[in-house]
Q: What sequence folds into this?
């Protein structure tokens, strides 16, 4: 079993990924976007949804398996602040019309300024499968950051 704080951290990490998935999913549904841009945001949405599922599975395992060890060196208040920022951005995206360029800039800001990878690099698991899943999340986040920064600059 994990501590109450670790439990809360895992719940909030999943919330972040679900929130990002919702933001990108909303962008994928924008009628004014071209088909390739919609497809890009749909892919981003699916990847963030997969990330949320990883944290959901880690959370379930951590609460069922007494031998499972995970160390998350993240301040809970920092993580909650991150969740609030994601929720604020979701409301903004839902209430404002954005151009394709603005969407890429918003995505770049999400991936860079909110620095999701910063949190992911502070998770250590003794289980090889979980460790590899977290490393994949870190690599996906870095890839998202590079793609979105380049797209926001018009580089494709």
A:
């Amino acid at each position: 079993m994990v501590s109450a704080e670790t439990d809360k951290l895992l719940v909030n990490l999943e919330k972040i990924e679900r929130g990002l998935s919702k933001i990108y999913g909303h962008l994928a549904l924008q009628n004014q976007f071209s088909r390739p841009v919609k497809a890009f945001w749909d892919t981003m949405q699916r990847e963030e949804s997969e990330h949320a599922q990883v944290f959901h599975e880690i959370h379930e395992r951590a609460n069922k398996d007494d031998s499972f060890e995970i160390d998350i060196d993240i301040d809970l208040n920092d993580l909650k602040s991150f969740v609030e920022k994601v929720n604020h951005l979701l409301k903004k995206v839902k209430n404002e019309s954005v151009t394709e360029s603005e969407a890429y800039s918003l995505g770049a800001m999400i991936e860079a300024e909110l620095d999701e990878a910063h949190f992911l690099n502070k998770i250590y698991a003794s289980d090889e499968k979980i460790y590899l899943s977290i490393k994949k999340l870190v690599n996906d986040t870095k890839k998202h950051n590079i793609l979105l920064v380049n797209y926001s600059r018009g580089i494709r």
